[in-house]
Amino acid sequence: MGQALLLTGRPGIGKTTIVKAVVETLGPRAGGFYTEEIRGPGGRKGFRLITLDGEEALMAHVEFRGPRYPRVGRYGVNVEAIARVGVRALQQAMREGRIVIVDEIGKMELFCGPFKETVLQAISGPYTILATVMAHPHPWANALKALPNVTLWEVTVENRDEMPERVRQWLWAHQALP
Prior knowledge:
The protein has a nine-stranded mixed β-sheet, sandwiched between helices. The radius of gyration is 15 Å and the shape is globular. The chain is built from five helices and nine strands. The model has no long low-confidence stretch (mean pLDDT about 95). α1 packs across α5 (about 165-175) and α2 (about 80-95) runs parallel beside α3. The protein is of the alpha/beta class. The protein has one domain: Rossmann fold, CATH 3.40.50.300. The chain has helices at about 15-25, 80-95, 115-125, 140-145, 165-175, and strands spanning about 5-10, 30-40, 45-50, 55-60, 70, 75, 100-105, 130-135, 150-155. α3 links the parallel β7 and β8 (about 130-135).
């Protein structure tokens, strides 16, 4: 069974920034995706999903409306984009034996059944996973956090600057890095 390091913490604390800093040092040894805010006049408009291979998809947006788009706050979630781009990136990382990067395991992504299945497959398999997970209680995410091969670290204002190095040390200790 592999090992998973999950970073949690309040929104905006720097979880994605940490993942991106670590991914930068991993190069082709990592695969998967991260998420990024889309900002416009008046603030945040949505989120895009970006694979480590450079593919992008619009994951959620304030203008997504209708029954096709489940809601999280003011955002409609494009579940199909998560499955098509995000899940495919995770599956490719597993096939290629890369460190699996999942940013993030949150309310939006959890609307996608194939996403949940793939994350469970990764955590149950022989893979090394670096992921971010929402801090807010959620039955599925809480069960994931409680798995025996999962290490959970909370990102805070006090520790976020040292966290990229701590994550790299964790990866090295778990044989994911040479």
